[in-house]
Design a protein that fits this description.
By secondary structure, this protein is mainly beta. The chain is built from one helix and four strands. The chain has one helix at about 40-45, and strands at about 1-10, 10-20, 25-30, 55-60. A four-stranded mixed β-sheet has the order 3-2-1-4, with helices on one face. A hairpin with a 3-residue loop joins strand 1 and strand 2 (about 10-20). The two termini are about 15 Å apart.
């Protein structure tokens, strides 16, 4: 499973993606005016980890009570 955390801010939207047990996380930052579709950006960030065909992706929103 890939976990993606999203922190939408007023100026920048930040993402981090990792698999449990991996020593490394992927981090990407986008200007918030480019972050109209958070789901599409989360998939883009998760794709950097090259998910398997049916590997699930969990998306967490920071500041939304989920994380």
């Amino acid at each position: 499973m890939i976990h993606v955390a999203c922190d939408p801010g007023s100026r920048y939207t930040k993402f981090a993606a990792a698999r449990p047990g991996d020593a490394e996380a992927i981090r990407q930052v986008f200007p918030s005016h480019d972050a109209d579709d958070l789901g599409a950006l989360a998939r883009r960030v998760a794709s950097v980890l090259r998910p398997g065909l049916f590997e699930p992706v969990q998306i967490w929103m920071v500041g939304d009570g989920w994380v």
